[in-house]
Each structure stands twice: as structure tokens, then as C-alpha cells.
Amino acid sequence: MKQYFAPCSGGLSNILGQELLGRQIGVEKIDVQKRGCAFLATEEAAYRALLWSRTANGIWQLMVRQRGVQSRDDLYGMARRVEWPEAMSVDDSLAVQCVIGGGEISQDITHTHFSSLTIKNAVVDNFRERTGGKRPNVDAEDPVLPLVLFLQNDEAWLYRSLSGTSSLHKRGYRQQMHKSSLRETTAAALLLLAGYEPIDHILVDPMCGSGTIAIEAALIARQIAPGLLRLKRERDLSVLTPSRWPDTDQALLRKVVLEAIKKELPQAPLPIFANDLHPAAIELAKRDAGTAGVFHDLTFSNEDVMDLHLKLQAEDQTTNKIVICNPPWDLRLNGGAAESWEKLGRFLKREAGDGDAFLLSGNPDVTRKLCMKVTMKIPIDQAGMSLRLLHYHVLPPKPPRMDGEEEEDGGRESGRRRGGGLNSAPPSPAQPAQKASASLSSPPTRQSGPGANDCGTGFTTMMLAATAATPFPPSFPSSASPSSSLSSSHSISRKEAMMTVTSFTMLMMGAVLGTGAWQRPKQTAAVAVAGTPLHSFSIRNSYDSYAANYDDLDGGSAARWLGLEAARQELIGRAHGRVLECGVGTGLNFPFYKFQKDGNLVALDAIDLSPGMLREARAKAALLGLGEERVRFHEMDVANLVFADGSFDYVCDTFSLCVYPDPLKALKEMTRVCKPGVGRVLLLENSRSDLQILAAYQDATAHVVARIGGKSCVYNQDVPKLAQAAGLQVVRREKIAGGLFTMLECTRRL
User: Fold this and answer.
1) CA distance 63 to 157
2) Which end of the chain is more exposed for a tag (fewer CB within 10 A), N or C?
3) What are residue 743's phi and psi, to 5 degrees?
4) Are 154 and 70 contacting, i.e. CB atoms less than 8 angstroms apart?
5) Gap between the Cα atoms of 88 and 387, Å rounded
């Protein structure tokens, strides 16, 4: 394993992290940073990253790192420590590039030219001492050993670049730059962020310019590794920089290259449409597509977007379409942007009804001309400009009137989405990488099924009728701040009470009636929870089935409205020292631990019974940059912990107690491993409400949900009473949403 860094444009680090963790590349550990990803990888995985990464600007291998760098002498001494003859021959050439990363850097080394010169002198002097005066030459254009010096605060990193001196965004197929061209890496990132699936989606770029988005889509569809384009053109392995290094495993490099070539498909599975009003732009697009070897995979047209009608074969008429486009927005072209967006809006409503469009913009004034509601905004940097990738969902065309007349099409956001492309919700950019479950080219999407708003309508109607005539005592928060969300000193209005019951019903009954994210698995083993027989599947298998989409429910809008996200943040923020989290699930609590404060959190042990949940949690930890020194994962039953007595300063459990077959035994185990007296057990759980009407509702529905619901949650337990029975003393209790949820801080009784 060696250390590497892959730089990228701002806003693309998460998608780059998914690429690196995907099966196509397969690195083991990553640290997602603002403009790139640091990662540990084998030599083979590094070569795969060089060939297959579509969003990285480079692949750099760390040679040496040093802290406390204040002067050029420090830089010189750092570079002299490296065994340079292992990386290059004295007859080879080198070049050094210096990158300033920011922070408080000593004035003595902020001049990039002189800092680069210092590193070059150190390498040259190293060879002179070994060879009796002979030294390597400098070649700024095509060096055998390209070095990158990165400076930030008082630290220095010296890398050798596997990608050479130029950026990987330069694929080599562009012969002339269009004035509004996207970087190739940015275009690829738009496709990946939008969830483009070559076997499921017909791709449409109605304002393609020089065709970068369409060409990158064809490369993805054909499974052509972008790093192979230059190699295929020049037919010489030496164009790959590592092939010229003495310590490179040449056979391994050739093996990775041949594997990539064998994966190429003869043609794209589905059509890719590229249209532009300007003939010169279309000619550029055709020329570049030919150079990239994907000309025959694209369908070009030269029309005004208002006149563009997609011509599809009969077998493609029902295939999902996805619109991804970089329309003009005036800051880069001379006028006409507002009109272009108005026309684009009409095109979408005519050709993309009941679908999704992903549009890049740097000017919010012109985007309003679309007259559609933005459902998601993703910040992206392009050539020093701060842009936004905007997601729009287009309403389906309205059916004709009874008298046969058509009503005007709608174009605002639809509250209901269905599976795939123009008919699906896109994957969230914040979603963690799915290392074991999917490659980046096939991100997980929500499956077809009734929406969450359809769940539990009968129960909700009954409860709303009851709350309309029932006064509620003070218990529900009146603001969304973490402190007030947990307060029990505010009065609750009838409207808030009704919304509370509605949200609670949506949250809990989603598992009973099923949503797009929650499909009950087909298993046969019977289980019992607190004496209640459950549906015929095991807890482990059911949560394995839910893992990929679990966050959609437990971290969804209903949970946020109820203040549960704020409650998690408040509770988990108290933990420090050595911490155990039981039932870690997909790692929803990871962002709330104060890892960044030195000495605040020594180590976190995270346990779960479900391998699928742990897989998702590991991916989330990787995207948050949480290495093994901060989080250790264990597949373990909370009722049979392997840790010694008094091992932890804090033991945390959030919304898992209701699922454990024996919650009292689980709490006793948490109590046992918590340090007596000074340790704390932190609980945030479903609990039986103190309010009579809510408690009656819970009692009436709890066993139904536990018996046939996917989560197997008994949500009317008396959590404080269970804690006391387990040997805990409650030192702090806070009620949330009328006592439907309770937050406890407990100590182990001596």
C-alpha cells in the first residue's frame, strides 16, 4: 500500500471518492478533501485510477512529507532524504511544479518558482554525490519524473505524478476549444452526478456546444477508459508516465492496460443526442467525437431547441430519457441567454414530461426564465467560476380534456418520481460511496413504489380527527435550533400537534405499507421482539436488504421536521474519550461526532449485526475522511458484546433499542462496558408518550408495525424504566415531539 492524492475541481471530491472506491478502480481507503481525495492503494489500483478516473485532474504518489517547514533549507533537507535513484536514472529528466494550498505559509517559501528550484537542486545534488558530478536534466514539457510540491500552513508534501505534467482533463480529443466548452472532467462529473445509466437512459443534450457532455457520455456507455485515449492514438506505452520509471512493475502495468482495452464495448447500448443551433459548434462536436472514437455513437442535429423533436426507433419509445445540458448564461457568451432558457423550458415540457433535467448555470437571473422549480443545487467550480448543477423535475403532460382539447403542459416540480432517468429521483451527491454494492457508473437509485406521503393515511386521518378536538400540554419545540428542538418548555399548538402525528405516522408506517426505499425482503425465518411474533424474516437479513436506501427514511424530511436530526447532533456531540456506538446502522451519526477537535474523541467503536449496514457505514466514514484510527467497525450482537467491563467513556444508541429482541439485555450489556461513575450511556429512542392520545395511538399500532413492518420496531417501550432496570441512573431526560421520542443521559450505578 502506498499513499496517493487525486486532485479535482471544486465540488467534485465526493463523486471522485465514489469513483476511487468503485469496483473499476478499487482503492481501499480514502480521505475526501475540498479539492481532491487522498487515498491508500496498491500499485495496481493506482494504475487503474490513472486509466479509469473520469473526474480526477491527476494521480500523484507521495514521496515524502514534512511538518514544520519554514524555509527553503527545510524544503531542501526534506527532498534530500528521498532515495531518488529508485525513482529515476541519472540520464533521465525531471520537472518540479509548486502548488500553494493556502493557510499561513512562511514568506520564505511562498514564491513557487524558487521553491520548485529548491526541490530540483536537492534532487540534482543527490545524484551528483552518488555519481561523482553527473546529474539529471530538466525538461518542463515531457519529463521522466514530474514532481509536484504542495504547501499548506507549515506542511509540505512532495509527490511524483503518474499523470505527467498535464491535467487528466485533457483527454486529447479536442482539436479546437469552443469559447464555452466544459472541462472533460466536469462534463463527466455532471453525468455521474445525474445518475446517467447507459443501459437504461437515452441521453439528450439539446444545447451541446462542442459536444463535451455527449462525448463523455459515449465514453462511459462504451466503457472506454479515458486514460487510454492518448495511448490508443500514439500506440506507445511510454505515453503513460509510470512506464518510464525504474521501480514500475511493467508487466502489471501492461496487464491493467490490456484489461481496460478488453472491457470496451463495440457501440453505445442506447442513443445519445447532441443538438446545437450553431453549425460551427456541431462541426466541432463531430470532429472531436471522431477523434475520441465515438462518432457513430452520437446522433447530431443542428436545430433551434424549439424545433427539436427526438426521433426514436419504435423499441426506444418507452425508454427513459435524461437531459443533461450546459445552456448559455451570458457571463460566457454575448447575450441571448434569457431567450435560450425560455426555449429550453418549452422543450423540456414538450419532450421531457414526467422526467428530470440537469442544467449547469452560473447566472441565477437567467435560470428563472425556465419557470420551473429547482429540486437540487450542487456547487461546482469550472475555470475559476462558481457554478451550480440544477436539477429540475418536469410535470407529466396533462391528459386531454373530456371535450378533446389539450390543456397547457405543466413544468413545475412533481412531488412524485419513479424509477430510472427522466422518471426517477437522482442519487444525492452527499450519498456515501457504495463500494461493495455498485460501481460509480451505476449509482443506486430509488426503486419504483408508492411515495412516502401515501403511507398510513388511514391512521393519520383517525389521529387528525382526534387531535382537532384535543388540547395538548406543552411538549413540542417551537423552533428548529438544536437547543429549542429539545426543550420541553414551549407550548404546542393544535396545528403543530396535527403535524406531529402526521409526520410520526409517515415515519413509522413507511415500514408497514412500503415505500420506494423500503421493500420488505422475502425471507422465511420467524423472530420475536418483546414477545411479539414478527413478519417472517430475520432482523439481520431485513436490514441487509434495507441498507442501501435506509437513509431515505431514518434521515428523511419527516425526521428532520420532528427535530430528530437536531437531537442526534445534540446527543452525539456530548461524547468524547473512547466511545461505543451500538446499532450504528449506516453511520447517520458520524457527522455529529467532534472528530476534528484534538483530544476530544480518541476512538469510536461502531457495531451492528447487519453486514449490509456496516458496508454503508464504512463507505460513509471513508467519504468523511474517518480512518481506522478514528472508527473501528465490528459485526456484533449488542446483547453479547465482546468488550471488557468498563471499557468505554461513552456508549451511544440512537433508535435501535426498539428493534433489539431483548432490549433489557442489550441495555445491561451497554451498562457493563460503560465506565462506572464517570462513564455515560447516551440514548435517543422511540418511547411511549406521556400524552394520553399519543400513547393510545402508539399502543393501538405498535404491535401491528412490529409484526408486519420491515423495521420490526416496537415503539411504545418505557425507555426510562428499561434503563433503570438495566442498572443505569438517569441524570438527564429530554422529551421530543410530545414524548414520542426521548433522549436520556445515564450513568452506571456503583
Assistant:
1) 8
2) C
3) -120, 125
4) yes
5) 41
- Residue by residue, DSSP assigns 69-137 as --SHHHHHHHHHTS-GGGT--TTSEEEEEEEEEESS--GGG--HHHHHHHHHHHHHHHHHHHHTS---E
Check residue 370 and give its pLDDT: 86
pLDDT at 519 over 80: no
Distance of CA 196 to the CA centre of its chain: 15
Specify the pLDDT at position 531: 33
Confidence (pTM): 0.57
What does the alpha-carbon distance between residue 517 and residue 539 come to, in Å, rounded to a whole number? 17
* Residues forming beta bridges with residue 201, ordered by sequence position: 320
Spatial separation of the C-alpha atoms in residues 69 and 115, rounded to whole Å: 12
Radius of gyration for the alpha carbons in the chain, expressed in angstroms and rounded:
29
211: left (phi over 0), alpha (psi -120 to 50) or beta: left
Q: Would you state the pLDDT for residue 335?
A: 59
Residue 106 near residue 129, CB atoms below 8 Å: no
- Mean pLDDT score of the chain, rounded to an integer? 79
| pLDDT tens per residue, range 540-558 | 666 766 666 666 556 656 6
Note whether 501 and 558 are within 8 A (CB): no
pLDDT at residue 81, rounded to an integer = 93
Describe the crossing of helices 13-21 and 611-623 by its angle, rounded to 10 degrees: 130
pLDDT of residue 499: 52
Lay out the sheet containing 320-325: strands in order across.
298-301, 272-275, 201-205, 320-325, 356-361, 385-393, 374-382
CA distance 531 to 294: 62
Rounded CA separation 477/488 (Å): 7
Cα–Cα distance for residue pair 368/342, rounded to 1 Å? 9
Which of 569-578, 689-698, 738-747 is the least confident region? 689-698
pLDDT of residue 740: 87
pLDDT digits (tens, 9 = 90+) for 412-456: 333 333 333 333 333 343 333 333 333 333 333 323 332 333 333
DSSP code for 177 = -
Q: Which of 566, 460, 452 is nearest to 510 (CA)?
A: 452
Q: How far is the C-alpha of 353 from the C-alpha of 338, rounded, in Å?
A: 22
Q: Confirm if 2 and 62 have CB atoms less than 8 A apart.
A: yes
b (16+ CB within 10 A) / e for 367-394: bebbebebbbebebbbeeeebbbbbbbb
Residues 6+ apart with CB under 8 A from 303: 275, 277
Half-sphere exposure of 507 (CA within 13 A, CB side): 26
Which grid coordinates are listed for 306? 424549439
Residue 267 is which amino acid?
Answer: Q
Please give the Cα distance from 204 to 322 (Å, whole number).
6
Short-list 74, 41, 77, 72, CA closest to 56 = 41
* 195 φ/ψ sector (left φ>0, alpha ψ -120 to 50, else beta): left
